[in-house]
Structures are given as structure tokens and as C-alpha cells.
């Protein structure tokens, strides 16, 4: 870990990557705090803080750049293997956080705190605690990528949160859904008989037996059983 050890590009924001280094994550709007293990005071070289800045995560290190650059803190450079005792916590009714030695929640934002080990000749003489507050999101993504990248370097397995344990429902609690009906093994599985067809009253009247036995209507002027007159007889 080193103070002001990372080289920035012309924009004074983006770090210059070294050979074989690749950027995997970047996020703005992050508050940074570092406090030495002996409990440094404001103004002491063992304590640093920045209200907002950018965080960069590569396959080798984690770099924080405050916005704007501070007189005593321009970059904070941490090799991934030097960050220890950190874990990502997902409470049920609270904001997610990445915590280690310190655990605090500010403004409902995501907080990250973990033990940091100094690098020889890096500007810090003692180990301490680093706290990152993700005010604009991106904390879950940071935690996932950080665990995987650090696991590749150290060989340690990535630490992931276990699923919550199953809790049985309280006694006396009622369920909104009724239980499924019991199936009797002796009950026949054959389908029910088809329902009787419904006949419209108009159709029933048209095909009723009374209408079927009714004699046909005879033409006017022709007695029953008498043949109708021919065409020639009618034309006379």
C-alpha cells in the first residue's frame, strides 16, 4: 500500500496502468477513509480521507483517486493481496455493505472497510483500516470482482455469502392458499360422462312430435285427396 504512488494520466483522474495490468472496474462518487491501527488523529500521516473520488480495480491493485486531488492525498494504491479481513454483507432490511474491521453505515450508502497492510517504502509505516462508501451504487459488483481477482493472485478461495437458512413457519400461522385435495387410490381415474346437450326452445318447438304429426296445409279450393288442376286447365 502506498500514498501518491500511482501515476495519473493528463486528466488527473485515470491511473496509468503498468505492464500486464488490465482494468476490470471503475466507479465514481466514492468516499474514502483510512485510519492507522494505532488510531491516528486528523492531520496525522496515519489518517487520510476524501469526501468523493473514483475507485479503480485492476488485476493487480486497487487505486483510489480523490476529486479534486488533495494536497496530502492524490492517489491511494493498494495491491490486492494486501487487503484482508474484508467481506460483503447483505442484510435483509438494510443497505448492502463490504465490511472488515470497521462497520458503519452512512446515509444509507454501501460501506466497505477492510484491513490494509502497508507496502515497504510506500509512505505508510503501519497497517490500518480502509473504508469505502459507495454512494452511487456499484458496491455488489465491486465485491464480486474483487473477490475473484484476489483469489487468482493469492490462491485463496473467493469468499461468497451462504444462502440464508430455512426458517419453519410459526405455529398457528394461517396460509392464504388451501391445501391440495387428497387423492383416493380406490377412486376410478376414468373421465366423467359427457354432459347432455342443451336444445334451444325454438329448435325444440320446430322438431316437436306435435308439429311432426300435424297434416300438411292444402291449397285454397282443393279438397283433401283431390289432385291439383293441370297447367292447361288453369290457362283456359
UniProtKB/TrEMBL annotation:
CDD domains: PH-GRAM_WBP2. Residues 196-212 have a biased composition (Low complexity). Residues 167-236 are annotated as: Disordered. InterPro entries: WBP2-like. One of its GO terms (cellular component) is nucleus. It comes from the Eukaryota. GO terms for molecular function: chromatin DNA binding; transcription coactivator activity. This is GRAM domain-containing protein. PANTHER family: WW DOMAIN BINDING PROTEIN 2, ISOFORM E. It comes from Synchytrium microbalum.
Amino acid at each position: 500500500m502506498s500514498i501518491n504512488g500511482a501515476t495519473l494520466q493528463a486528466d488527473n483522474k485515470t491511473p496509468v496502468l503498468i505492464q500486464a495490468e488490465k482494468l476490470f472496474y471503475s466507479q465514481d462518487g466514492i468516499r474514502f477513509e483510512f485510519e492507522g491501527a494505532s488510531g491516528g488523529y486528523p492531520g496525522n500521516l496515519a489518517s487520510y480521507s476524501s469526501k468523493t473520488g473514483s475507485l479503480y480495480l485492476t488485476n493487480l491493485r486497487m487505486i483510489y483517486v480523490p476529486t479534486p486531488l488533495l494536497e496530502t492525498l492524490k492517489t491511494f494504491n493498494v495491491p490486492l493481496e494486501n487487503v484482508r479481513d474484508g467481506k460483503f454483507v447483505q442484510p435483509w432490511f438494510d443497505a448492502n455493505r463490504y465490511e472488515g474491521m470497521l462497520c458503519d453505515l452512512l446515509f444509507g450508502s454501501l460501506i466497505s472497510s477492510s484491513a490494509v497492510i502497508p507496502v515497504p517504502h510506500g509512505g505508510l509505516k503501519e497497517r490500518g483500516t480502509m473504508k469505502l462508501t459507495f454512494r452511487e451504487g456499484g458496491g455488489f459488483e465491486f465485491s464480486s470482482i474483487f473477490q475473484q481477482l484476489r483469489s487468482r493472485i493469492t490462491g485463496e478461495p473467493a469468499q461468497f455469502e451462504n444462502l440464508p437458512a430455512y426458517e419453519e413457519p410459526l405455529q398457528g400461522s394461517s396460509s392464504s392458499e388451501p391445501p391440495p385435495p387428497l387423492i383416493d387410490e380406490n377412486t376410478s381415474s376414468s373421465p366423467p360422462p359427457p354432459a347432455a346437450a342443451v336444445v334451444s326452445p325454438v329448435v325444440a318447438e320446430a322438431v316437436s312430435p306435435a308439429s311432426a304429426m300435424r297434416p300438411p296445409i292444402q291449397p285454397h279450393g282443393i279438397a283433401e285427396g283431390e289432385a291439383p288442376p293441370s297447367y292447361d286447365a288453369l290457362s283456359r
